[in-house]
Structures are given as C-alpha cells and as structure tokens.
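Section 5.1 Outputs to date
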Amino acid sequence: MTKHDEYESPLAHRYASREIKRIFSPRERASTWRKLWLWLAEAEKELGLTQITDKAIEGLRSNLVVSDDAFQVIAGEERIRRHDVMSHIFALEKDAPDAAGIIHIGATSCYVSAMWRLLTVSAVTDNADLIFMRDALRLILPKIAKVIHNLSKFALKFKDLPTLAFTHYQAAQPISLGRRAAQWAQDLAMDLEDIEHVLASLKFRGAQGTTGSQASFMEIFHGDTAKIDRLNEILCEKAGFEACYDISTQTYTRKVDLRIANALSAFGASAIRIATDIRHLAHDKILDEPHEATQTGSSAMAFKSNPMRSERICSLGRKLSNISTNFSATFSSQWLERTLDDSAIRRIDIPEMFLLTDALLILLDDVTHGLVVFPAMIRSQLDEELPFMATENIIMKLVHAGVSRQEAHERIRVLSRETVETMKTTGTKNDLIARIEKDGFFKPIWDELDDMLDPKLFIGRSAEIVERYCGSGGPLERKLEKYKHYIDSTATATLAV
C-alpha cells in the first residue's frame, strides 16, 4: 500500500505551505509536549524540588525530538490504553528511563512523580496548542501584510484610471480602478488589525492543576503560593509568553479559540469578497488574474481562460469564513470546568483554520501581484454608460443657458428611455449623445458635449483618496512598516497546483 491508497487531506497536500504544515505536524506536536515536560521539571528543580535530578532532566533534554521508533511505541500504546498523552508518557519513559521517576501517570489523569502531581493531561495539550496557534499567527501576519502591499501598489498605479462602478450590480457613477483596489486593501488591513490583536492578547495556561485551583501545586510546594506564581512565571519565560490567563479550569477557556477563529473567519470573508469582485471583472474582460501560457481553462472548450485562482479562493474562503461556527459551538458546549467533547473537533479545526488561512494567502499573493488590466476594455465599458452619467451635467448646462430644469429633465428622461429600449431590443450601442445632437432643444450645449464625456470628470476625488490612504506616509504604509523586511525580501508565492 502506498500513499495513493489512502485518503489524504487536499488542504495539506495541495494548498497549504510546508511551514504551516510543520507547525501542526505530529512530530512538532509530540516534541512540544516533551519540551513542556522538560520546562516543568527544570522550573520545579529551580524552585527547590530536590527529587528532580540533573540526570532526569538531561534524559528529557536529550530526547526532545520524537523519533520514528518512538512513534511506533506511541501507536502501540494508544491502541491498548485509548489515551494519547499516556501513550506519549510511556514512549518518553522508554527513551529517557532516568526521567521515568518524574513522568508517571496517576489515577487522576495528572502527571505525577513518585511524590507529587505535575500537570494534567490538558495542561500539556492546551499549552502546546497555545504555542502552535501563536507560532501560526506569527507566520500568517506578514503574509497578509504582503498581500495588502500588493494591492496598495496596484491602487497607486491605477489611482486615476476611470472605471465604471456598480451598485446593485448595475452601472453607477465611475470611480478609479485604484480606488476599488484600495477598498480591498482596507478590508484586509482590518483583518490584519484583528489578527494582530488576538496574537497580542494570547496568553499561556501554565500549571494550574486539575480544575484550575492550583491545589496540586499547593501540596507540592507546601502551601508556598509565591513559588507557584514563580513556577508559572518561569514556564511563561521558557515558552515565550508574557503571562498566564488569570482564570483557567481544567483547560484554558475555549473563548480563546473562538476569538482567533472569528478573526481568521473574517479574513476568509474578505478573501471571498475580493476574489468575487475579480471574477466579475474578469467576466467583463477589464481585469484578470495571472495565467500561465500552458494553463488549460476547460477540458471541453479550448478557448476558455477561467479565473480558477479566484474561484479557488472563494471555495477555500467559504470553508474558513464558516469555521468559527464550530468554535462557537465548542465553547458554548463546555460544561462547568470542562468536558472532553472539545477534543476531537479541535484536533481537526485548529490546524485546518490555519492551513486554510495560509492557503488563501498563497493564492492572494499570487493573484494580487499578477493582476492584468485591460484599459481599452475599461474605456469601452465606460462608453456604454457615460452618456447616461453625463445627463445630470447636461441638465445643469441647459439651466445655465436659461432652459427650464423640468423641461430639460423630461427631454433627457424620454431620450434615455428610448436609447435603453433600443439597446436592449436591437443590441446596438448607446447612441444617446447622437440623439441629443439631433434634437434642437439641446442646441445651446452641443459644442460642450465632448468635454462633458471625459471619464475623469466623473471619478471625484478617487485619485486623492488612494494617494492619501496608500501613498507615502499614509495609514497603510504606517501599518505595514513592521513587516517591511518580509515584504521586501520575500518572493511572490507560487502555487503547488
């Protein structure tokens, strides 16, 4: 049997980066558990627990990386015991027999030595999950910044290129193409802020005991609360966290997972929003995502060039934007101090929400870096609607020439309706201006019609808005400053498939 004979998640196999997969890999998970056991033993020895020997600590330190042989032992033990952490304990005892005296499992499902309890199972798994989520958040933040940077450059490049706007997906007052991209950038900047916030507020669980009362550690340290506080300070220092959560039960509150999922789900919604716009614009042939020369759009219709990257973004984004529902249900379903119905779903959802985010960022980096613009098609689309857009200005010009506004409005209304009807029934182009030029009522402004059809007259302050937001010294540049080295030194992401 080969890998082709068993199911493998497409999310990991096809879409996510090696870096994010490594964070949530079985070896990284198991090795991080071993680090946590080592850190606890070192901290307790530092605080005067003489039962922990240098030899035991060295045994733990020498076996931090879980070997393939150890995974075989773990798999065999878990089939017997139906308890993953216990299985890892037995494998570690086999690798580091000198440490077996301080890694032993008791009836309370706490880690105990021959004389004291150490950590609950969830303390190890929870602390490890917090480490993984922190590291994954740190990985994705610069990638979001890079996509924002791509869009900012695009927005500045096309800040004054008029393009037709749409409200209700109907033609509306023109904006600039750069102004539209600046909106996409702003949405992602909000996601960046939210994800930065959940990272900055992330804390450690530390050593809190079986139900969060620290009773086990009161016994270990003979009621010395200062040592318990110092124990958690040491653990935070070793793990790279500023502090522990003030209140924990048997686990850290699952509200933490939900806050992170909410931020990532919101990013998933932004990704869909941007990619959907690109798909609509690709349909109109005014903008397109990058395509390789050998890329096949359709197995049946050889002429097609589909926006498959943007479609994939919408597909993966749909999964990510809805994943917070699972975390909400898991959080709200925790009974009292903890129930285990959070375990299996978190094993799936925590890695997947980060792999989804990472996969979307790979796609967005590729798409936003390689967007292709077709100015002639943009102008053609504008020309179909500009005569209608210009009617308000035509009315005002007539009023200045002494014509009744109500009569001018009625004449424009009638001609516009006739034009639309002809366009819809015959497929001809917009001839409203030609109709106006044939109607003597409009003679006072005939000479001004061409000037009134300049698209740049209709985009307002679009260029200024883009420059102010995306330009030098603007809010976006300031927000991306901390990621400048990553942005400048990282090549555009490439797709695996």
